[in-house]
C-alpha cells in the first residue's frame, strides 16, 4: 500500500510575517495579524504595511508621468530658488538684507534639492532591485534611475556652503580681532556695556529676521515647485514613507531662538554687568 505523500516542510519564506498577512483570507484576519505582528508602535505597523506591499510600484501606469513632472519641478526650483526675493522697505540696509536673504535662501533650497535627489535615486535603486527583471516596471525604474542620477550629479557640482570669502583667513581674523578689541573697551564703562548690549541685540534681531524671512521665501518657492510633484511621485511608488522635507521650519526655529536671546538674555546680561 502506497504511503501518503508527506507534507512538504515549511520554508523560511513562508514564515515571513508580511506574507502571512497577504495569505490571510478575510480583512478581519489581516487586521488581527497586523495588530499581532506590529504591536502598538506606529513605526512597527508602518514597517509591516510596507513589507506587505510587495509590488515595486503602486501605480505603474502613472509612474513615468509622475517622474517627468518631478524632474521638471527640480529644474524649476534649481533655476529660480536662489533668485533675489522681493524685500520690504529697509532704507539703506535693503541691499545688505537682500544679499543675506538670498544667501540663506540659496542654502535652504540647495540643501533641499540635494536631499530630494538623493532620496529619489536611492528609492529608485531599491525598487528596481526588487522588481522582476523581465517586467515593464523594472525597465521603467531603470530609466528613471539613470535620469535621476544624472540630475543628482549636476546638483552635486553646485556648492551649498556660504560664500568662501566669508571664511577667508585674513578677513575672518581681522573681524574677530576688531570685535574683541571693541568688546574689551566697551566693558570698561557702564555706557560702553549698554552700547555693546544694544549693538548685540540689534545684530541678533537682524539675524533672526534674515533667518525667518529667508525660511519663508524658501518655503514658498519649494511649495510652488516640488511639494506636490514629490507627493504625487511618492503616491505612485507607494509604501515609501513620507517624502523628504526642507529645512525652512528649522530655520524658523533658529530665528525664534535668536529673538529670545536678543530680547531676554542680552538685557539680563547687561543688567548683571552693570549691577556687579
Q: What features would you describe in this structure?
A:
It is a single chain. The chain is mainly alpha-helical and 276 residues long. The chain has two domains: 1-54, no CATH class; 55-157 and 179-275, no CATH class. The protein has nine helices and no strands. It has helices spanning 17-23, 27-38, 42-52, 60-80, 94-129, 136-156, 169-186, 190-237, 248-275. Helix 1 (17-23) runs antiparallel to helix 2. The longest helix has 48 residues, at 190-237. The radius of gyration is 28 Å and the shape is elongated. Mean pLDDT is 80; it is low at 163-172.
Q: CA-to-CA gap between the ends?
A: 106 Å
How many domains, in number, for the residues? Answer: 2
Quaternary structure type:
single chain
Low-confidence stretches: 163-172
What percentage of residues falls in helices of 4 or more residues? Answer: over 70%
Mean pLDDT: 80
The fraction of residues in strands falls at: under 5%
What is the tally of beta strands?
Answer: 0
Instruction: State the shape.
Output: elongated
Amino acid at each position: 500500500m502506497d504511503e501518503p505523500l508527506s507534507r512538504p516542510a515549511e520554508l523560511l519564506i513562508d514564515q515571513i510575517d508580511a506574507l502571512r498577512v497577504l495569505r490571510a483570507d478575510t480583512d478581519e484576519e489581516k487586521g488581527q495579524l497586523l495588530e499581532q505582528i506590529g504591536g502598538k508602535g506606529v513605526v512597527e505597523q508602518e514597517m509591516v504595511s510596507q513589507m506587505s506591499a510587495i509590488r515595486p510600484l503602486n501605480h505603474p501606469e502613472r509612474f513615468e508621468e509622475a517622474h517627468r513632472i518631478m524632474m521638471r519641478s527640480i529644474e524649476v526650483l534649481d533655476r529660480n530658488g536662489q533668485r533675489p526675493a522681493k524685500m520690504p522697505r529697509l532704507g539703506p540696509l535693503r541691499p545688505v538684507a537682500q544679499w543675506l536673504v538670498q544667501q540663506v535662501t540659496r542654502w535652504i533650497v540647495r540643501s533641499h534639492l540635494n536631499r530630494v535627489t538623493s532620496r529619489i535615486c536611492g528609492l529608485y535603486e531599491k525598487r528596481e532591485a526588487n522588481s522582476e527583471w523581465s517586467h515593464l516596471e523594472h525597465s521603467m525604474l531603470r530609466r528613471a534611475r539613470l535620469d535621476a542620477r544624472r540630475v543628482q550629479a549636476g546638483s552635486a557640482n553646485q556648492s551649498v556652503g556660504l560664500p568662501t570669502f566669508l571664511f577667508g583667513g585674513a578677513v575672518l581674523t581681522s573681524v574677530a580681532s576688531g570685535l574683541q578689541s571693541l568688546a574689551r573697551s566697551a566693558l570698561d564703562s557702564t555706557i560702553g556695556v549698554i552700547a555693546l548690549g544694544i549693538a548685540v541685540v540689534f545684530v541678533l534681531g537682524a539675524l533672526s529676521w534674515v533667518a525667518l524671512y529667508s525660511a519663508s521665501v524658501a518655503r514658498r518657492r519649494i511649495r510652488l515647485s516640488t511639494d506636490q510633484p514629490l507627493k504625487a511621485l511618492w503616491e505612485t511608488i507607494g509604501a515609501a514613507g513620507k517624502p523628504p522635507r526642507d529645512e525652512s521650519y528649522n530655520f524658523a526655529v533658529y530665528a525664534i531662538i535668536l529673538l529670545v536671546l536678543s530680547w531676554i538674555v542680552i538685557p539680563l546680561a547687561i543688567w548683571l554687568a552693570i549691577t556687579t
